[in-house]
Design brief:
By secondary structure, the protein is an all-alpha fold. 85% of the residues lie in helices and 0% in strands.
């Protein structure tokens, strides 16, 4: 059996410590890490809007949903792997953990390579079929080809960060992202603001930072976390283990992806309202995703706490963590709804000076503000089912929600415009 030091893993606190303080301490680095991860796309949009103007900004805004779909598949799949890893850590099943890690890594690399190629080949036809203007599509594809080509590094970071969190360490992924975010800002300003590379410079900066993130996490694991390391002779793909991983990962991946696909379809419905409206809506979505980092950090922390306690056979602690999660989500939702109600234009004006873009984005987040309470509570409910390994329930719920939202948007957008999306 492999040994574990208390300085390496937070399982002692997760399995035996006070629930509320443990949840918050574990969640804080995840929240900050999520904010930094979204900072990549936010900084890209800000730099493009400030230095390159409205056309490249429109390109990066219509590219974002396609990139988000592939990223969502990666994150959703690693969430499923993380639940299984958390259960194995909680039960101290180290041989099973090694088989899970090697199969998930090898299988994930193959799947991401295929998806990246599909994104590069099909990106332009999909954007044009959606009604995207050709000049906007040209800008979007410059960005997408480079980002898709480097998507394997995004997978590697999310894979290593997820298994570190499931192992009980949420701090290292945060510090790695902090380093990467600072580097991303510096590279964006250098390549676009100083060297005038255009939109491809933003994409190159994003990929380079993902390389750094993946490399740092990998290096830390091999230095400090022996149970998570794969050594010579352990790099094996097991079909039987792969089926178990797939039973956890497929629902998480599809759940994350269908949400992004729904946003992508809705974006196409808005194309008749003009480029400024589409760009403003996408900037509103970026702001919304940034705000949701707080909710998702709490829910991700609860998934780890639930999965480890499930593996250790502690159902009462699972109930306590769930109640603490609900309390935290309610407080966060009220605070963020107040911010969106009071300062919607200020939030959107970070991205663009175009008054039409700002008006469309502010209308979206200002209208949605108090609906976020229901969304945050839904997030914590879904994290409960993820934590106990029932990811198929969250997938079905998300699929139904997205299908209904797309249908209602189709009915209401021609009448109410951006408000129709909010009501849907």
């Amino acid at each position: 059996m492999q040994s574990i030091g208390k300085n390496q893993i937070g399982s002692d606190a997760i399995l035996h410590g006070p629930c509320l303080s443990t949840l918050l301490r574990f969640a804080l680095p995840i929240v900050l890490g999520n904010l930094l991860q979204h900072l990549y796309s936010l900084v890209d949009a800000i730099v493009v809007g400030r230095y390159l103007g409205d056309l490249p900004l429109a390109g990066i805004s219509v590219a974002a949903p396609m990139m988000d779909i592939l990223t969502a598949l990666i994150i959703g799949g690693t969430i499923g792997v993380g639940v299984l890893v958390g259960q194995q850590v909680g039960s101290r099943d180290w041989s099973g953990l090694t088989a899970t890690l090697s199969t998930a890594l090898l299988g994930g690399l193959g799947i991401v390579a295929v998806l990246s190629v599909l994104g590069i080949v099909l990106g332009r036809p999909i954007l044009l079929a959606q009604g995207t203007q050709k000049n906007v599509c040209d800008q979007a594809m410059i960005y997408l080809v480079i980002v898709f080509a480097g998507m394997v590094f995004s997978f590697l970071y999310n894979y290593y960060a997820t298994i570190l969190r499931s192992y009980g360490n949420s701090r290292v992924p945060f510090f790695v992202l902090l380093l990467s975010a600072v580097l991303n800002i510096a590279l964006d300003v250098l390549l676009v603001g100083v060297l005038h590379t255009g939109i491809w410079g933003v994409a190159v900066a994003t990929v380079l930072c993902q390389v750094v993130s993946a490399g740092c996490c990998c290096l830390y694991i091999y230095k400090k976390c022996p149970p998570l390391c794969l050594y010579k002779g352990q790099w094996k793909f097991s079909a039987s283990v792969g089926r178990v991983i797939l039973s956890y990962a497929w629902a998480g991946a599809l759940q994350q992806a269908v949400v992004c696909i729904g946003r992508f379809i809705i974006q196409g419905m808005l194309s008749g309202l003009g480029t400024e409206t589409v760009t403003g809506y996408n900037m509103g979505m970026r702001t919304e995703q940034f705000l949701f980092c707080f909710s998702q950090g709490i829910s991700a922390s609860m998934v780890v706490c639930l999965s480890q306690n499930k593996g250790a056979g502690n159902p009462r602690r699972m109930q306590r963590f769930y109640r603490c999660g609900i309390l935290c989500e309610l407080v966060l939702a009220v605070i963020l709804a107040t911010v969106c109600t009071c300062w919607p234009q200020q939030l959107i004006s970070v991205f663009s000076r175009n008054p039409d873009v700002v008006a469309a984005g502010a209308l979206y987040i200002g209208t949605m503000a108090w609906f976020y309470i229901a969304a945050f509570l839904g997030e914590i409910c879904q994290s409960f089912f993820r934590g106990i390994g029932r990811l198929e329930i969250t997938m079905v719920a998300s699929l139904g929600q997205v299908a209904l939202r797309v249908f209602l948007s189709w009915l209401l957008i021609p009448v109410l415009g951006v408000r129709g999306i909010c009501l849907s």
